[in-house]
């Protein structure tokens, strides 16, 4: 079980006082760190439908950190779907609030969303640094402030974006878990365990659903070893076929993507 004694704790009662909600985190980032989630987002059927049908879509990136890069990159992806989308980056550290650039606004704010009611919210590599007991409170605060039909993506990635996992939520709560990784940088699916969302990372122990899922993935991966000479992408496609044959519920892949990708219903991994 992971040690969370060093983790950050926010005072969510401050929401009633109109103050930004959250704790200043390390704020590190890199160019293209969140590209796997960005690609997935604009091709997700429900996200596409929601943003396409919204008259004035608004997306908010919570905790963009010490650099504007990933928020501006996200805006570029979203504009492929909606050129008119408004994108706002929120940071709880006043020293990190930046002037607008490339059509993206940057403001002081946190999980209370600075009073906005956006259609899409993203928070990556933020709750990873919090105490696990505060994840549900942070989720609920965001969900309570979404526009009708809005969605929330909360996740974690490594520093270069080679391994990433995220949860998709709507007003009803968590909907799905996605695992995405560079096929050339991971030896087996369970290597993503160190980058699981905060709600799940400490649950990766025998008897928990997330541990069972990762074990199932590794077993299917090993049984697909005969496809390794064709490369890890082909081997992962074979692994997915085995998983489907064994009854694992997975979201379909829209085409042959460059990432190794798996999206499962939240019920598959829910604590």
TrEMBL record:
Highest taxon of the lineage: Bacteria
InterPro entries found in the cross-reference section: SAM-dependent_MTases_sf
Protein name (Swiss-Prot/TrEMBL): Methylase
Organism: Corynebacterium occultum
